[in-house]
Inverse folding.
């Protein structure tokens, strides 16, 4: 949250590219931090996915918002493979670039059709 606030102010609370950035960053940071205690990357990634997916169930949104958040969490795990050895500044820069390329979606079906980019609704 602190990084998202620093980079985007309060905009990351909306369904926009800043929010997509925050979701992807969140799962990447969780994964990186957990790897310090558990040296099994597959287990850590599975747990990070389970935890971030659970958060969407715990704090439910409308269907499109939920699909967007789950998608951006999953993209964070995909991006992790590309940036796992980068420092925080490099990770933030990488994700800000991806957020600038995020795709606006209008339906849950559109979210499901996007495979390699962050998505947003606002």
């Amino acid at each position: 949250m602190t990084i998202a606030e620093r980079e985007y102010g309060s905009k990351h609370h909306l369904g926009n590219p800043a929010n997509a950035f925050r979701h992807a960053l969140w799962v990447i940071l969780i994964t990186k931090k957990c790897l310090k205690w558990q040296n099994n990357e597959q287990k850590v990634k599975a747990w990070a996915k389970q935890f971030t997916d659970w958060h969407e169930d715990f704090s439910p949104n409308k269907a499109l918002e939920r699909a967007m958040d789950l998608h951006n969490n999953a993209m964070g795990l995909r991006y992790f493979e590309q940036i796992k050895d980068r420092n925080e500044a490099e990770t933030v820069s990488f994700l800000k670039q991806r957020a600038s390329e995020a795709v606006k979606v209008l339906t849950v079906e559109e979210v499901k059709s996007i495979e390699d980019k962050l998505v947003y609704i606002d």
